[in-house]
Amino acid sequence: MTAVRLPAVLDIRAAGTLREDLLALRGSDIVLDGGEVERIGGLCLQVLISAKKTWAMDGKALTLAPLSDALTEQLAAYGCADLNTDLVGATG
Amino acid sequence: MTEDPFEAIKATFFQECEELLADLEAGLLALENGEGDDETINAVFRAVHSVKGGAGAFGMEALVRFAHVFETLMDELRAGRKPCDDATIKTLLRASDVLNDHVAAARGAGAPVDEARSAGLVAELEALTHGDAAPAASAAAPEADEDEFGFKPVQFDPMDLAPAAAPATSGGGDWRIVFQPNAALYAKANDAGLLLRELSRLGEATVEIDASGVPMLDVLEPEEGCLSWTIRLPGAVDEAAIREVFEFVDGDCDLAILRDEAEAPPVEFVAAPVAAPAPDLDITALLAAAQAQVQAPAEPAAPAPEPAPVIAAPAAEAKAPPAAPETAANAPVAQAPVTIRVDLDRVDRLINLVGELVIQQAVLAQRVSETAMIRATGVGQGLEDLELLTREIQDSVMAIRAQPVKSVFQRMPRLVREVAQMTGKQVRLVTEGEATEVDKTVVERLAEPITHMLRNAIDHGLEKPDKRVAAGKSAEGQVRLAALHRSGRIVIEISDDGAGINRERVLGIAVEKGLVEPDTQLSDEQIDNLIFMPGFSTAETISDVSGRGVGMDVVKRSIQSLGGRISITSKPGEGSTFTMSLPLTLAVLDGMVVSSAEQTLVAPLAAIVESLTPRAEDIHLVGGHTPVIRFRDEFVPLVDVAATLGFGIGPEPASTGVALIVEAEGGAKAALLVDAIQGQRQVVIKSLETNYQAIDGVAAATILGDGRVALILDIDALVSNTRRSVRKPDLKLAS
What we know:
Chain A is α/β, with parallel strands linked by helices. Chain A has 3 helices and 5 strands; from the N terminus they run E-E-H-E-E-H-E-H. The radius of gyration of chain A is 12 Å and the shape is globular. Residues 88-92 of chain A have low confidence and may be disordered. In chain B, the strands form 5 sheets. In chain B, strands 14-18-19-17-16-15 form a 6-stranded mixed beta sheet. The chains are: A alpha/beta, B alpha+beta. Chain A: This is Chemotaxis protein cheX. Chain A: It holds the Pfam family STAS_2.
């Protein structure tokens, strides 16, 4: 089980790095610490969803915990309040 | 129609930009002074938003990018998520300066934008937007930031719509918005999250995400958009409001705005840039309209290019950003006055014609009086009515050209900030009378002298903070810029609370430069005025800030060329005040028509205090040759106008003539001796400089009712000639 701390600002500039960091951990169960996230943009959201799909396909666990209030609120605004459960099409 | 309609719209956009940027700065300054409220923040947001919107339509990427970062912070401020404190406002003010630069650069009018400064501000704005987490990173590497943030043209790659876009099940009439951002949307620093948030402000929204397009992580392109959303909004929400949310991302996302019907018609997905029929006017609609006009057959004898200007006003309104419902409800935005943009040439043509009308009216009046037509016939009354009407028309026409000096004053805070920074001084600029109106030509030509004098006031007038503190003043110096109307003229005052003019030094420089003889005895006032002498100011005596190769003599000349004058008062330790006085208009003047040595002259009525018949016993000679006249317990110089201007000799003895007591700027009086007064009349000013050359003592010329040319006296020059003790007046009037 590897823990990864997500940066405070997950905007367009963070998307590429986030993807690479996560890819490097492929194959292991990971926990994403979103406790400090202040802002998440659509592109980083994509990366997380893509990772979620990838880990599911690999049969590994990817958990997002804990979540900052801002992250919780923003995920809800994106229509995916709980990234840990299945999303529409996310596991498809 | 020969003008490119696209260019015309672009020109309109830049005109709007000027107004928006002015509003922006005014709002920020109000906030800085603690006068702002939520609506002020909203107004600033709207200004930036509108600039960004227009710029987006014209593909001005750098401008859009900067405006976006600016706008994002404003959005945080108006939502109350970030405090609008002093430091933030100062940053916003500097950001507005850079935004100005971006607009100027986009217009091709200004120097290229200082990229480092712009990037630095982007970093600062982002730091403020994101709180304390981001600033270190982005501020530390502004260049990298710039690169990453830079606009990258991305292939438009419409993705297949996801199953989630299937017909909705909710009640009939609700809105269903299917939205998929493309890479370009993100690359332009927009974000799906922002748009979703804007939408949810319009009403109770349900947001459904579709992640079916998201691939596995190893093949995911991190900057491509592959999520899509379906948002449902109540049917009561205005469609225009929804479209406004997407106004600036039109080409950068796939968008369908649908209204659910009971029958749930098949979903028709359309790419936004092609199909979105703009319900209100916006730049896109303007472009389409212009395009249509190009294709339409040419209108017969269209007098001038006008379609763009005429629709400009509604466009500005339509571009107002979506207001949050609560804001719309409790903060009514002031109704903008209805305006049209008119080509200046047309106004000027009208003004010229009215000028001719005034002259013709005078000619007619004179002819009628010569024929001794009787008042009983009503001709006299009719003429009087005509004169009133003519005057009213003239006033109204002049009012078209009148503009508040605000447009010039508003540029000054930036200048003050920059000069203060360069000189290491602390300056507070106080402006007064911004609403004072004056002719457009005057307004435009005020900018340069005011700029120069403000620079001088800060650079030379104010002391450094430590010196000020040592002198018992506050560290922050104050520069006051005021405009007011005084006796039919506009007066601009620029004062500082600095050290005042160092007369010893000024005199020293003047002697050194050979401008005055070393042994000359000069009054304080005369020494102060030395700074206006040509050749006083040189590279050695001025710093980088003031030294732009322009001395105060040039400032004085440019003011004089407007029919104005400048004076200075200074108190050691307390500061200096420069006072410019300019005519409100360069077109008409109320004058007293007088005759002198068989010439007809006009004295500006505003300068005349009184007229009297001099009594021999009131006239005295000072020093045996300089005549003065007693006037209410004081002696004022008596000026024989004909002799002074060199075309004859005035009434002899003086008591056979008439003396006009006139007051010059600064309060100095003189008595102008003429033969007789003919009457009071409004005259149309014809420039002597344009038609002949400048003449000392003569301000301009006019055409009288009988068709003769009359010279208009320059009262200040005449008065100051009497007070000149250093040099003899050099009169140039030939004959």
